[in-house]
Amino acid sequence: MAAAAYGLDFAAPARAQPLRVWALRAAIIAVLLAIWEIVARSGWLFQDVVPTLPVIARAVLRTLSDPAFYRNLKVTAGEIAAALVIGGTAGMVIGLMLGSSRFLSLAYEAFIHYVGPTPKIIFFPIMILWFGTGPGSKIAMGALSCFFPIVISVAAGMRQIAPVLVRVGRSFRASPWQMTRLVYLPAMRTPVVNGLRLGLGIAIIGTLLAETKLSNQGLGYLIIQSYATFDMPRMYALLIVLFVLAIGLNALLGRYAARDLSRPDMV
Amino acid sequence: MTLSGPAFRRFAAPALGLGTVIGAFAAVEGLIRAGVINRFVVPLPSQVLAAIPRIVAEESVPHRFWQTTQEALAASVLLVVVGIALGMLMFRFRLLRRACETSVAALASAPIVLMYPLFLVIFGRSGTTIVMIAFVAGLPPVILKTVEGLAGTRSVLLDVGRSFRLSKAQLFRKILLPAALPSIFVGLRVGLIFMLINIVGVEFLINFGGLGQLINELAERYDLPGTYGAILFVILASVLFFVVLERAEQWLLPRTA
To answer: Chain A 131-190, CB below 8 Å of chain B: which residues?
Structure first.
């Protein structure tokens, strides 16, 4: 979740892995899968609660070939994108303001710092009242969730710009627009991309949780629907696909941030 | 006193922040009274404030608070014991660390709370579900920061320990652990924040347990001032929890570092 919103980033650098590491990874995965299969077949738990691996694999394939899945994925993706645009724009603007003024930061940043990590889903009843039971309230949930990490990273990113870069810009008599475009934004690209990455992760959570609570479309709806009809293989399949998508997106954006950091023309 | 002086900033900035919040509430109150905002969508802020004592008295808030606290305590114990132990294990066995660290980091950014229907199926609609989700969601930062802290111990400290011929256990207790504590505390703070978010969120989602359920119930009864009041109350309680965590971290560090 919002790890880097609190000044932490866990993206470990990729390095060459020797064979032994891969072997251990494969062994751990194999053991976990074997335990799962044993539990599923043992009858210790209700069989339907822990379906066997082939059943889950079939459900994943069925989900991936189901047009309804893509229809709902599109709804959710649209909601998340809208949430990211709204919450991200608000977060960028306010983050830039807080980052550029010590006074404003002293006045308002404490609120953002403390309200940021509170559970946002509890605002959902209010969002339903304000924006209705349709996609509006889900977008609002996503936007509200992703606003905070983006503000925090943008404000922090603005403050960590090396003063020498700003002085170079000034000594070239750069206009405010040139300063923003040529100095601030390039120097802040990594924190901004990281903020967006966290914002995306949290927007996914906010939007999907809202969908599980009250909706008639979207991935969250599909998940809670499979729960309600006790279609366990489908629920596992949806969760697996969702996790792969979320972790993949996050890794992709993380790569982008890391690559920018190493760009020689950035500094 | 100049406009940009530090003394001016120290008082004026928080005053501006607080003033903005109070001003916003007053503006909303005015707009509702003027009929610009529908009062069946946004209740009067004065009604919301008045609703807080009412819900505390009528909705057994102390009991709910205690329920949420119990869940939080159970999840915290699990987090501390399992998280730090796993971190130590990964530090002790380098191969394990290299094999697992990326996956744990990926989990830290994964939407774990979305698995709540799965936990519901396994543990039922009960406190156990809430505790287990909160525990799993808070686990990655604790593990990662424990490993990071232990691995970041300055080698000169370890050399000093070895030159005193400390045993492995002594080396761990007297040097590695104290050196790693600041990092472990950071991990614990983040893990505990995730834990609290998940506890309250899942309580709300599955309509079970303490404070989260209160919001759900009031919203379903369409008790608007009550719903807004309860949300405000939960936000304040969470903020209090974060402040206490921060203070605890600051208080513990100088004595151990």
So the answer is: none
User: SS3 helix, strand, coil % of chain A, rounded to 5?
Assistant: 80, 0, 20
DSSP A52: -
Euclidean distance between CA atoms B154 and A2, whole angstroms: 29
Q: Does domain B51-256 have CATH number 3.10.28.20?
A: no
pLDDT tens-place string over residues B25-83: 999 999 999 988 888 889 999 999 999 999 988 888 999 999 999 999 999 999 999 99
pLDDT digits (tens, 9 = 90+) for B152-193: 988 899 899 999 999 888 998 889 988 999 999 999 999 999
Residue range A197-208, pLDDT digits in tens: 889 989 999 999
Q: Which of residues 185-224 of A touch B (CB under 8 A)?
A: 198, 201, 204-205, 208-209, 212-213, 220, 223-224
The one-letter amino acid code at A189 reads R
Say if B228 is an interface residue toward chain A (CB within 8 Å).
Answer: yes
Q: Is A217 left (phi over 0), alpha (psi -120 to 50) or beta?
A: beta
Domain that holds residue A77: 51-266
Q: Which residue of B has its CA nearest to A23?
A: B99
Distance from CA of B75 to the nearest CA of A (A): 16
The ipTM is 0.87
Quick one: A122 and A40 in the same domain? no
